[in-house]
User: Which sequence fits this backbone?
């Protein structure tokens, strides 16, 4: 699948089959995250690959909406080193999710609402933090990966030279 097609067809999925993700596929996904750009090339993002069932259960307990995490084949915790920014983590996370989808692997970004819990479960050093956890796996049989709300039209998304329309203040 080419990059543009992967981007425009990727949708979050929370229902996974029990099929494991082959190591070469996981390596490509993780490599895509490693290759994401970062502010001033500081490379403040690290990843923790979580495949052990008990550990996926533990990390799921740190998020309010993470009940799908234990069923995924692999969870990837996107970790920021001290001084790292959320934008850098987002770039790495999106790279990994798009690369996964290009391999037929679905994903869902999952917030860790209890940061101290996530840090403890993953054994992070002082100053490090979990930016997001990516639940990944092959879609459960019969699960549509094209559900969801339609995207807004491009004309509503793009404003030329200044904001126009609703909420423009006049």
Assistant:
């Amino acid at each position: 699948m080419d990059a543009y097609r992967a981007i425009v067809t990727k949708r979050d999925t929370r229902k996974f089959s029990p099929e494991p993700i082959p190591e070469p596929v996981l390596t490509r996904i993780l490599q895509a995250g490693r290759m994401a750009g970062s502010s001033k090339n500081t490379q403040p993002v690290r990843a923790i690959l979580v495949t052990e069932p008990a550990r996926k259960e533990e990390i799921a307990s740190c998020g309010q909406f993470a009940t799908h995490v234990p069923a995924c084949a692999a969870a990837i915790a996107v970790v920021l080193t001290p001084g790292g920014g959320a934008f850098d983590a987002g770039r790495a996370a999106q790279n990994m999710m798009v690369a996964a989808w290009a391999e037929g692997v679905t994903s869902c970004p999952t917030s860790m609402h209890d940061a101290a819990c996530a840090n403890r479960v993953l054994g992070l050093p002082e100053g490090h933090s979990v930016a997001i956890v990516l639940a990944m796996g092959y879609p459960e049989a019969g699960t549509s990966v094209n559900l969801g709300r339609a995207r807004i039209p491009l004309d509503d998304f793009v404003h030329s030279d200044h904001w126009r329309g609703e909420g423009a203040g006049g």
